[in-house]
Design brief:
By secondary structure, the protein is of the alpha+beta class. Helix content is 40%, strand content 32%. Helix 3 packs across helix 4 and helix 6 (180-197) crosses helix 11.
């Protein structure tokens, strides 16, 4: 049976598509169901640059795949020794949530889906999926394109960890996930921080604008030094919280010493998951780990009412994530393209430079200088 692919402009999408989309988002990965839902897609694409659309594949009138997308200009970087030499702009639909939502989709059917998308939109250079979990769907994508004469898949990155905590039944059971020595250190640092500032710590929950309005400036100041601000160029604004709050999902937290906020966590909750999206803290108190104190107090607060099933720490490394998570998935970033000599050459150069860059980084890390830097970061230098 053949596949028929239809591309719907958002929000003009049939109810049957929304239902399939919501169901498969929950079934494929429950902790990410909220951020892969139609409701989240609607919020994030309102007023954003790029066309929002949904690619739908059907077999005999039965929906078997959905790809909610936003058409963007994406840049393929050519990097060596940590320096970006050039960027190639590509016109691509970026799949929201980063993964394929599918149900019993065959290899030939997936290949046909991608081919039909490119036939309908000759102006698109590719189709970008930035968070394909290692497992059946990544295997489907790679196997369907490995010997295809019409489409290719390029693995842009592989093995990025995504950490979660499936919350135990009680807070005491959560604490038992760590050694008693580790837990004592956390609360010992909190007491030392209180003594240093002469004030007691307090956790404040922020859900609506009136909760955070008196502290808006301080929150943005704390978040200006968050890793997202440096690595991604994203400067947090309380307007981000406002948008999420309007949909009833905001559940952020602030740690105060006396009247002064010293740490802030931007979080949102829905579909039985609290997503720990961004954290910022007062760098002058770094030795006391105020962010870790906030996290433990936050988790304790979750148990005061019916807790969510999951606490999702998001993608990327982080020592606190490794220590607290009891579940981790790994994800790849994949670009699907037509088979063409030009794109083959382009990605051949990209692959060669990426390989060279990885080798150079490995050599530096294994060198005496690299070892000294790692020791310093761990506090042993």
């Amino acid at each position: 049976m053949s596949i028929t692919t239809t591309i719907h402009s958002w929000p003009n999408v049939p109810a049957s598509v929304r239902q399939f989309w919501s169901r498969r988002a929950m079934e494929q990965d429950p902790p990410l169901a909220l951020v892969r839902s139609p409701e989240w897609f609607d919020m994030m694409t309102q007023g954003a640059a790029g066309d929002a659309l949904v690619i739908v594949a059907e077999r005999s009138g039965q929906i078997v795949a959905a790809l909610p997308c936003q058409v963007i200009t994406w840049h393929l970087p050519f990097t060596i020794a940590g320096r970006v030499l050039a960027k190639k702009p590509l016109n691509v639909p970026k799949v929201w949530g980063g993964d394929l939502l599918e149900e019993q989709l065959g290899l030939d059917e997936f290949e046909a889906l991608v081919c039909q998308v490119f036939e309908q939109h000759a102006e698109w250079d590719g189709l970008l999926l930035e968070h394909v979990e290692h497992g059946p769907r990544l295997e489907l994508i790679r196997a369907a394109t490995a010997h295809s004469h019409r489409v290719r898949s390029y693995l842009l990155s592989s093995g990025r960890p995504h950490y979660r905590l499936a919350l135990p039944d009680t807070y005491a059971e959560f604490l038992n996930l760590r050694s008693s020595k580790s837990v004592s250190k956390v609360f010992g640092r909190e007491r030392a921080m209180e003594r240093a500032r002469g004030s007691k710590s307090e956790l404040v929950e922020l859900r609506v604008p009136s909760d955070w309005a008196p502290h808006a400036g301080r929150i943005e100041e704390l978040m200006a030094d968050a890793w997202q601000a440096h690595a991604l160029g994203h400067t947090f604004s309380v307007a981000d919280m406002q948008t999420v709050a309007e949909h009833g999902w905001n559940r952020s937290f602030m740690l105060k010493l006396g009247d002064q906020p010293v740490a802030f966590a931007f979080c949102y909750e829905g579909m039985r998951t609290l997503i720990y999206a961004q954290i910022g803290y007062d760098a002058s108190l770094g030795r006391y780990s105020p962010g870790v104190t906030l996290l433990y107090r936050l988790i304790e607060r979750l148990y005061e009412a019916e807790p969510p099933a999951y606490l999702d720490f998001g993608e990327g490394e982080g020592e606190y994530k490794k220590q607290l998570a009891n579940d981790v998935v790994h994800a790849a970033s994949v670009l699907l393209t037509r088979r063409s000599a030009g794109l083959t050459a382009l990605f051949g150069v990209h692959h060669a430079l990426s390989w060279t860059d990885a080798k150079l980084r490995s050599l530096v890390q294994d060198s005496a200088i690299g070892r000294r830097l790692r020791h310093k970061r761990r506090g042993r230098g």
